[in-house]
Amino acid sequence: MLSGFADSYRTFSNNVAKPWVDASSKIVIDDNLNKWVDQTKTFTDNGYNQKTSLWDANWTKGQGPNGTVFGYFYSTWGINFTLLGNSLATSVKDGGKEEVGNGIYGDWAACAGPQSYYWGGTWICAAKGGNTDAIVLDVMKYFTVDTKSMEAYSRASQDYVNNKEAIKNITSSGYSSAFLGGQDHISLFAQAADKINMKNAGQYDQGLNEAFQNAYADYFNGKATKDQALANFYTKAQTKYPNLTK
Predict the structure, then answer these.
(1) Rounded to an integer, what distance in angstroms lies between the CA atom of residue 241 and that of residue 200?
(2) pLDDT tens, residue by residue, 133-173
(3) 3-state class (DSSP) for residue 27
(4) pLDDT tops 60 at residue 100
(5) Cα–Cα dist 246/238, whole Å
(6) pLDDT tier, 185 (very low <50, low <70, confident <90, very high otherwise)
(7) What pLDDT does 88 receive?
(8) pLDDT confidence of 123, banded at 50, 70, 90?
(9) Local structure of residue 93 (DSSP, 8 states)
(10) Has residue 136 been placed in a domain?
(11) Is residue 140 domain-resident?
C-alpha cells in the first residue's frame, strides 16, 4: 500500500486537535498521532509497506517502472520536484547528456487523500543591510504576490502557488499535465487547499514530528516496545528542546 513508515504521517499530524506544545510548555501527543502509530504498526506487520524511509534509495525505487508500491502521499511540490524528477534518467548520447523517461512518465495520477494536509512551504528571505531595499522588495513581490509571475511559475513547474487568482486563471484555461497523463491536478489542489486547517501549527512542529517518527521506527521494526519508543521520543524531544516538559 505504502512505501515506508512516514508516508502517511502528515495526514495524521496535520489534522490534530491540539498543538504539539501547550501554554505551559508541555508536550502534547494527540490521539491522531497514536492512530498513525497503530496503523503503521499494522501495515508493517502485515507487509503493507516496504519499511523504507523518506528519500532513501528503496523509497525512490518504488516509484520507477518496476516499483510495486500502490501510491505515495505527497505535497504539491512532491509531484514536480520528486516524482517527476524520479521519472527521468540521464543517458549519454554522442558525447552529451540528455534526460530520457525511465518508464513511468505519464503513468501516475493524483487523487484527493482521506484528509487535506500541508507539508512545509517555500520561503524567501533577505539579509539585513545594504542599499538595495527597493530591488529586494520588487523581487519578493514578484515571487510571492504578483499574479502574473506566480501563474507563470505554476504553469512552468506544475507546482501550486498561494494566489487564488493565478490558480483560477490556470484551471479555467483547460490546463493539463502530460506527466500525470493529461490530468488537471491544479484543480484538485485548489479544492484541497481550502480544507487545510493550520490553527494548531507551531514553532516546534518540525523537530517534534521528526523525533516522533524516528523514535517509533524501532517499534515498527520490532527493535523496541511501544513504551520504549515513547520514552525514546521524549528523550529526543527534550534533548532538542530542553525547555519542554512531558
Answers:
(1) 18
(2) 899 999 999 989 999 999 999 999 999 999 999 999 999 99
(3) strand
(4) no
(5) 9
(6) very high
(7) 65
(8) confident
(9) E
(10) no
(11) no
4 contacts: CB under 8 Å, gap ≥ 6: 49, 50, 51, 52, 53, 54, 56, 59
**Within a domain: residue 130?**
no
Q: Are 72 and 7 in contact (CB under 8 A)?
A: yes
Q: The cell 505551559 sits on which residue? A: 24
Q: What's the CA gap between 159 and 81, in Å, rounded?
A: 9
- What would the pLDDT profile of 48-98 be if each residue is shown by its tens digit? 999 999 989 899 889 888 889 999 998 888 888 888 877 765 444 555 655
- Are 161 and 153 in contact by the 8 Å Cβ rule? The answer is yes
The DSSP code for 101 is: E
Number of domains in the chain: 1
Residue in 20, 18, 10, 3 with CA at minimum distance from that of residue 233 = 20
Rounded Cα distance, 108 and 74, in Å: 12
